[in-house]
Amino acid sequence: MFKDVTPEELYHLKQQDHTLVDVRSPKEFEEATIPGAINIPLFSNEERAQVGTTYKHEGQDAAKELGLEIFSKKLPAFIKEFKQLGTPVTVFCWRGGMRSKTAATVNNLMNVKVNRLKGGIRGYRNWMKEQLNTLPLPPLYVLNGHTGNGKTHILHQLKDEGYPIIDLEGMAAHRGSIFGGIGLEPNNQRMFNLLLGEALLEYQDQPYILIEGESPRIGKIMIPDRFYQHKETSPQLFIELPVEERVKNILSDYSPSDYHEDVVEAFHGIKRRIHTPVAHAIEEALENREYPEVVKNLLTYYYDPRYSHSTACDEELITSIDGLSVEEAKEKVKQFLSAESQDRKSEGVE
């Protein structure tokens, strides 16, 4: 007989050599799943739709019979996929119902030991929502500054060096501007909340977390209000690089030559907010694929004025970090954090 595990137990199992298997259809899996899970579906998208239609028109028994008929044909291949995993396994579906019960039962009958997540992904989401509402929030240091100042690059490099980082844009799979979704497949709110909740759990014992300054919305994602308000009252490290470096960073991040039509479409969405002669100059540079000129004008006449207007941090929270390059700014951030750590130690906080 398989064992049911709670969402909290599953979170701790994830930290070990453990595989999570989402047995829902590929479409459901792509929309949102538990971070780190793989997909071994009982039914394809078409098969799930067929079973659903049968349930609607002929009732539960007919739908179960059809589901059994479809699944029995793929049972050997289904079991084989689980045997190849070579780790302990927990399966889940939407509510911890028939699909995950079936997957757990047939695997155990074939001596492949698996657990089932109690309450399914919905239960895990509800548990994670509770964590987001109640977990102690460690102190934050917020990398802030105008567009293109390398904040995300600095975060990624510091993460590689072992610093505690939460990459909100990475979790949203969106860069946060009108051009922010170009070349990316943005996550939905459900997936974002799961990723953020797990990151906060991971860093509970850290003295602080580094994040990037964001508005309340990243693309279509809303940052949970409790976390956002904590960010707003945290120390802000304002990164400032030369315009030429910012242009290079943006061109590297967005690769506009690879997504020319998407860039043009996005620009048309903000064109009316830019002074007409400048908008015409940007449009002409776009037509000629003169991307450095496009970026420089957008920074000067659109992003920088909007950013300066929207930023209203308490002056006492702000520390300026100037540099000629991302690398230099990163080193200055590290020096600041080291000094802060020494201060905390002298005060007996750490």
UniProtKB/TrEMBL annotation:
Domain Rhodanese: 14-130
Molecular function terms, GO-annotated: tRNA 2-selenouridine synthase activity
Highest taxon in the source lineage: Bacteria
SMART domains linked: RHOD
Keyword check for Glycoprotein: no
InterPro entries, alphabetized: AAA_SelU (IPR058840), P-loop_NTPase (IPR027417), Rhodanese-like_dom (IPR001763), Rhodanese-like_dom_sf (IPR036873), SelU (IPR017582)
Keywords (A to Z) from UniProt: Selenium
The keyword Transferase is assigned to this record: no
A GO BP annotation: tRNA wobble uridine modification
Pfam families in alphabetical order: AAA_SelU (PF26341), Rhodanese (PF00581)
Stated name of the protein: tRNA 2-selenouridine synthase
Species this chain originates from: Alkalibacterium putridalgicola
Organismal lineage: Bacteria, Bacillati, Bacillota, Bacilli, Lactobacillales
